């Protein structure tokens, strides 16, 4: 048995595969206006109804002409002007040129544009001081998008990059999947809402704020059920309310061996697997169903809750939302500049600060305290330092894998 084969611990990749193998996309489609589409997932391919540009136009301020006319002369007569939205009304005849602005429609008969900086003007006689090639500085019809092209594929989440593209095609409505509805609550008699004074043995409920922020960034509609006391009746009531959602996320009460009502009620009402995952932070995790609602039970420690939500629940919610183009956070190789303390046995998601040094190399330093309750480490970090399950202590100068925070963390 190797050092990474810790008895009873499930590798992170295995846990994620088990989750994704069970979850199926909701695929409940609706239609929204373009302005309402931001962050939603397309339920159909979007094909262009037009060519972009819809007409050949000039890429420069200059003069439109027939390139063949410059074979025996360098001077042409300016016959008119073409502006953006006000095209030249007529044909560019042999021996003529048309003053044209950037984005203006090419006059009929013209095939090339010479920029104004390469001309000498004498009234309506324009001398061209530089030779150019046929078609230069002209954007042809469909240069960017052809009619019928798939411009944004089904399964893509609409971002600020897609919005102007879709608007440029005149697309007013979008076929999209509805957002997953995710209910969440925290459990524990020791928890108090922010803004209230703490008494002996009490702490503030920070998890709900981190969970809500991430869920909303994941593109979900959220239902905050608050803090639920360690009371069987209140817990049953909360679980009943949550079954109207697609997913229930809880924090606390899923540690194996923990004397807790939460686990007992989950065993009664659903089909839940309580897993010990070979990851740090975040070893205790629960996954399954309560009636028709997916259940994800996160650890109670703040950093553990956020790491498991980010690493395990984020890709699950992407699949549920129909986001088939979802990409996991980007990973890079980096040089460690500090010691990273670790024991073999669990994959470790330590919080790090990466930068590009003067030689163009990626390097990373620890944020310091890596305790599962030290949330300041998340505030300081801009990446996870992903230390392999079998790996031990990392010394400065060693190569490590870093995982850049994706948009959910910003």
UniProtKB/TrEMBL annotation:
SUPFAM superfamilies: MoeA C-terminal domain-like, MoeA N-terminal region -like, Molybdenum cofactor biosynthesis proteins. Keywords: Magnesium, Metal-binding, Molybdenum, Molybdenum cofactor biosynthesis, Transferase. Its cofactor is Mg(2+). It catalyses: adenylyl-molybdopterin + molybdate = Mo-molybdopterin + AMP + H(+). One of its GO terms (molecular function) is molybdopterin molybdotransferase activity. Pathway: Cofactor biosynthesis; molybdopterin biosynthesis. It is an enzyme of class 2 (transferase). Its EC number is 2.10.1.1. Residues 183-319 form the MoaB/Mog domain. InterPro entries: MoaB/Mog-like_dom_sf (IPR036425), MoaB/Mog_dom (IPR001453), MoCF_biosynth_CS (IPR008284), MoeA-like (IPR038987), MoeA_C_domain_IV (IPR005111), MoeA_C_domain_IV_sf (IPR036688), MoeA_linker/N (IPR005110), MoeA_linker/N_sf (IPR036135). The keyword Transferase applies. Gene3D superfamilies: MoaB/Mog-like domain, MoeA, C-terminal, domain IV, Molybdopterin biosynthesis moea protein, domain 2, Molybdopterin biosynthesis moea protein, domain 3. Belongs to the MoeA family. Catalyzes the insertion of molybdate into adenylated molybdopterin with the concomitant release of AMP. PANTHER family: GEPHYRIN, MOLYBDOPTERIN BIOSYNTHESIS PROTEIN. This is Molybdopterin molybdenumtransferase. The lineage of its organism: Bacteria, Pseudomonadati, Pseudomonadota, Gammaproteobacteria, Vibrionales.
